[in-house]
Amino acid sequence: MQQLTAHARSFENRCAERGEEFRRLGAGQSPQALFVTCSDSRVVPALITGAAPGDLFELRTAGNIVPEYRPERPAGEAATIEYAVQVLGVEHIVVCGHSHCGAVGALVRGEDLTGVPAVRGWLESSAPELSGPGADGGTPELADAVQRHALAQAERLRSYPCVAEGLAAGRLSLDVWFYEVHTGAVRRHRSETGRFESL
User: Fold this and answer.
1) Are residues 92 and 18 in the same domain?
2) What is the pTM of this model?
3) Which spans in the chain are helix H?
4) Binding site annotation covers 55?
5) Please, are residues 127 and 152 in contact by the beta-carbon 8 Å criterion?
């Protein structure tokens, strides 16, 4: 924590060297994309994409889960998506799953999550399609399960009215990525082949 604190302490001085850039940020934001990914500390969207401050509007949840759209039960995730699309006018959404995902691994292996009831409830209610044994549940990378999971989250996003409208009008694109933590490789799902391929 000391290293993080020291960096934060000196951040203002480093920002002063890029004064005009940060002054523009003070005037507002217009991010290019909504980046939906996992809360996992090994997944750093700006590092993966080279994004500068203001480029990405991020939604990070355990297991990069997008909950079902329920306007009668407001949720932070739905509010983030709606704000990005309706207010900020992002033109792109990326759902990015990652290798070695603890949430997906717990689901495909059917792990006992009684000690973490909030986590269990979140995963079981939001990602039931992965419950029980999976084809690659014994591998640490979990590539197949994570990719299927990311595609399911993108499909759920399509049910959000603002996303459906944006896609139908051609104002919005939706991509699904898979990031390998151990190699840094990023693959994009190609609808024409049904496979994840290099960007």
Assistant:
1) no
2) 0.89
3) 2-16, 19-26, 45-49, 76-82, 102-109, 117-126, 143-157, 161-169
4) no
5) yes
Same domain, 9 and 95: no
Question: Does residue 22 sit in the same domain as residue 60?
Answer: no
**Is 101 assigned to a binding site?**
yes
Q: Residue 95 sits in which domain range?
A: 31-198
Q: Is 162 annotated as a binding residue?
A: no
Along the 199 residues of the chain, how does pLDDT read in single tens digits? 988 888 777 777 777 777 788 888 888 999 999 999 999 999 999 999 999 999 999 999 999 999 999 989 889 999 999 999 999 999 999 999 999 999 999 888 888 999 999 999 998 877 666 654 444 555 778 899 999 999 999 999 999 999 999 999 999 999 999 999 999 999 999 999 999 999 8
98 is in an annotated binding site: yes
Residues 8 and 74 in one domain: no
How many independent structural domains does the chain possess?
2
Same domain (yes/no): 87, 148: yes
What are the residue numbers of the active site? 38, 40, 42, 98, 101
Longest dimension (CA), the chain: 53
Contact (Cβ atoms closer than 8 angstroms) between residue 65 and residue 90: no
